[in-house]
Amino acid sequence: MSAPKKVVLAYSGGLDTSIILKWLQTEYDCEVVTFTADLGQGEELEPARKKAEMMGASAIYIEDLREEFVQDFVFPMFRANAVYEGLYLLGTSIARPLISKRLVEIAETEGADAVAHGATGKGNDQVRFELAAYALNPDIKVIAPWREWDLTSRTKLIDFAEKNQIPIAKDKRGEAPFSVDANLLHTSTEGKVLEDPAEAAPDYVYQRTVDPQNAPDTPEYVEIGFEKGDAVSINGKVMSPAAILTKLNELGGKHGCGRLDLVEGRFVGMKSRGIYETPGGTLLLEAHRGIEQITLDRGAAHLKDELMPRYAELIYNGFWFSPEREMLQAAIDASQAHVTGTVRLMLYKGVARTVGRWSDHSLYSEAHVTFEDDAGAYDQTDAKGFIQLNALRLKLLAARDRRLS
């Protein structure tokens, strides 16, 4: 790859990406444009601007992408009830395509010939960033310093920072107890004290949720309104997508909902252990399934459940901008035409449980399922022929097996 003249860097303002900024300047003698996305990670971003200015960034982009993140990425994913390996709500995975999208767009605006990220060569994020970038601009150059440089230890990183007058927070001089990634959907914590999957995660790892044992002793009820598969209101109050997820995080965190201790299979091949907190997403998934129970036809619901693992795997592996994900999304979105109504959840000691659901689009017919007189709504004698037809092949199989035994 020829040396780039201008690079757009996904920049958090932390030690690693600050080192990368300086490394790009010294290694390639190029201009560096920084891009910092506010995805609801809960950190003040103005220090990142000041740090980028101090380090000579040629242009600085800091953007509030919370609404776009939830509306165009999180909500479409939740229409599918996407869960990776049966448990993980894909909080880190779903943020990467949006960051890559803006990196590529800023590169075009700035006339940059490359983008760069701070993901390591061991993880999934390098794959997600780069697959998304190439899907949006096949000619873009991607620089992944962790795969190129010789700064292979925390000590070497600190030495590089000190030699180049890069500010180092005091707590960064020692070994960090764990690594954290956060956005409006979740927090992800891994490494160091969590690397032995046999050992329970220390209490201080958790940041967004109270210990369920210490959660309120009284249940709290919340009503979530849906239109065409997307949440639009909480307790009757219409809110924006990001505001809804923010409020659900508050409610779920208060009651200790959404904690997950997972050993997952990374796309690159190894297994890793992570602690995830997805309080708002946990409530959203439970409520979405609750409204689908009464508004979605059985055939459509079962097909969605068959497609979901494939859809979730595509997101986890970085294929958000692939034609197969878009094909699945079209089918999923078509299924949501009547997924409109309200769900009541009960939150208590780490559990979010559906306790009520209602909709003008409901397929539920009390007349057909009642144990009382149904006034002719359902003729029970019809079941005999239904059973006989479905039993025919089973009878033929049993007769053959008896004949041959």
The total count of strands amounts to 14
Q: What is the CATH class designation of the largest domain?
A: Alpha Beta
Mean pLDDT: 95
Radius of gyration: 25 Å
Instruction: List the total number of helices.
Output: 12
Shape: elongated
What does this structure look like?
It contains 12 helices and 14 strands. By secondary structure, the protein is of the alpha/beta class. It has 2 domains: 6-66 and 90-176, 3-Layer(aba) Sandwich (Rossmann fold), CATH 3.40.50.620; 180-296 and 338-358, Argininosuccinate synthetase, chain A, domain 2 (Alpha-Beta Complex). The strands form 3 sheets. The chain has a 5-stranded parallel beta sheet, sandwiched between helices. A 5-stranded antiparallel beta sheet has the order 10-9-8-13-14. β11 (259-265) and β12 form a beta hairpin. α4 (96-110) crosses α5.
Q: What distinguishing features does this structure have?
A:
5-stranded parallel sheet, 14 strands, Rossmann fold, 405 residues, 5-stranded antiparallel sheet, 12 helices, Argininosuccinate synthetase, chain A, domain 2, alpha/beta
